[in-house]
Amino acid sequence: MKSYEKSQELFRQAERRIPGGVDSPVRAFKSVGLSPIFAKSGEGARVTDEDGNVYTDYICSWGPLILGHANPVYFDGVDEVIRRGTTFGLPTALETELAQRVCAAVPSVDQVRFVNSGTEAVMSAVRLARGFTGRDKIVKFEGGYHGHADAMLVKSGSGTLTFGEPTSAGVPEGAARDTLTAVYNDADSVRRLFEENPGQIAAVIVEPVAGNMGVVPPEPGFLASLRSITEDSGALLIFDEVITGFRVGYAGMQGLTGITPDITTLGKIIGGGMPVGAFGASAEIMKKLAPEGPVYQAGTLSGNPVAMKMGINTLDWLESHPEVYSHLDELGERLEEGLNAATERTGIPASVTRFGGMTTLFFTPERPTDFDSVMNSDTKLYARYFTKMLDRGFLLPPSQYEGIFVSDAHTDADVDSLVSAAEEVFNELLAEDAQA
Ligand code: HOZ
Question: Which candidate in 53, 111, 201, 253 could, as Cys together with 244 as Cys, close a disulfide (CB 3.0–4.6 Å)?
Fold first, then answer.
């Protein structure tokens, strides 16, 4: 058994001054019945905690670290940027440099504005959609998570789902009233909302690969239906590509599918591990934003030079190394096949979902396709699995409702050892249950 003593002491100290001891709820490890490990350092695919335990990391900061931890690529020239000054409250050339790269890569984006997080990106994109269309209602999907702005915390995923509050306390009725929810992978449920609310829906917002109720890929035709439903009714389609942007391919999910949304939100990878978000669209839509147009949006640290530089470094590497994407896909496929085989051999009631390098092992025999089927998962079994895997040196998401992320620093051998540890753990869990 590993010792987690130092992490536990740090957590006790943190709890005194930080609510729940953490700055983002999922990392509290509460849903897996543990206290969190405190990270000390990361290198490539490994994280070392404060007790000196080393793990192969399958959280990867929930997506930004596509090149692994502390890859020198992120840091090239960053020292110099820091020494010149970290924030000015004035534009810098680096913002335009990153904007040029994003606009060249992402089909729907002629212009982009940088913010500090995915939450901010979505909050601003929704306001922009409302300002552009003159309509108030927004359609989102059950189990879809788009950050923690009031209007998005309705039947949402990620931590809200993990802790059983998909519609958060503190969201005023007024803010939630204009948020309609549909069923992921069910275009008819969206059509019905448009029929019931004619001329009132400003936008449909969707994670083109759901990544915050566990990974749930879109069924064939689903995203295309959203495109035609929104087009037919004068509403905008927003792809929340905070996770999928520059991850499933250099042009994101819209590049892979050829389905072009009206507005795209981005984050994570475009900051190379620094806090960044962005939203972009056609020039026609973006000109509605202040100072050109009437939709207000601002931020003191937006377009921060250090974050811009790290984002530029990351995108430059990805653009010139397209093999990163095939590598992630191969790792994901190997993981999916390995876990499926282990599941079959042991008879553990589990199923695997995957898109590219994003995977979830759901403890339900039927592969989930939407929120309701995700909710069939045995979260207690997941918690036991998580604990045993952590002890074997595998850092998995501390919640059933999150995705496993691999990076370019992961290897086939990493994936194979995860799979064989998982099979060992499946057998242990089944043996324990047979004895109980
Ligand atoms: N699912 C979240 C990121 N998309 C997890 C982040 C967190 O809550 O810490």
Answer: 253
